[in-house]
Design goal:
By secondary structure, this protein is mainly alpha-helical. It has one domain. It has 12 helices and no strands. α2 packs across α10, α3 crosses α5 and α5 crosses α6.
Amino acid sequence: MKPKNPWISILTKPKSTIRKIVDFNPNYRLLILSWIYGFYITTSIAQNMKFLISKWDLFPIVVLLIILAPIFGYLSFSIFSWFVFKIGKWIDGKGSFKEIRASIAWATVPLIVNVLISIFFISFFKKDFFIGPAKEYLVKLDMFLLIFIALLIQITTIIWFYVIYFNALAEVQKFSVLKAFLNVFLTIIILGILSLLLIAIFKWTCSTFFDEPIIVNFLFK
C-alpha cells in the first residue's frame, strides 16, 4: 500500500516510514530525492571552484546545477549504498541494495531546507553566492545574523539527516542503530582507503610527465 505523507512522517518516525516505503516500492520518489541531494552537493562543489565559477555568468551556472543535480544525487546514493550493502553483509545485514539506497535517499528530506536556503541566497547574492559575498554584506549586523542563523539551521538539518539515516538503515538491515552506525563508519573508512589508493595510482602514472616523480612528493612531502 502506498505510504501516506512519508515526507512528514520520515522526520519523526523514520523506522516505520522507511518500512512502509520499501514494502511499497524501494524506488519511490527516488528521482526527486536524487535532485534534492544532488543540488545540495553540486552547490557545495561550485562554491569550492571559485577560480572556474568566477568566469561564468550566473544563469549558465544555475542551469548546469539544475541539470547535474539528479545525476550527482543518483550516483551518490547508488555508489555509497552499494558499498554499505556489501560491507553490511560482513555484520549480518539483511537489507537489499534498493532498500539500503532508499534509506539514505529518504534521509535527505531535512536537506530540503538547505536547498531552499541556497536558492534564497543565490537569488539575493547572485553570483557572489559562489565566489563569496562582498565585504559590505558581512559588516552589516542584520546580514551577519541572517547568515549565522542560516548556518545554524543547516547544521541542524545535517544532524537530522544522520539521525534519520541511521534509524532507517537499522530498519532495513534489521539490526540496531549502533550497528547501522558501524556499517556506515566501516564504509567511509574503506572508501577513504580506496580513494587514497586511486590518488596514489593516478599520481604514479602521471609522474612521467614531470621532472620529479609525483609519488615521491605525495608520500614524503
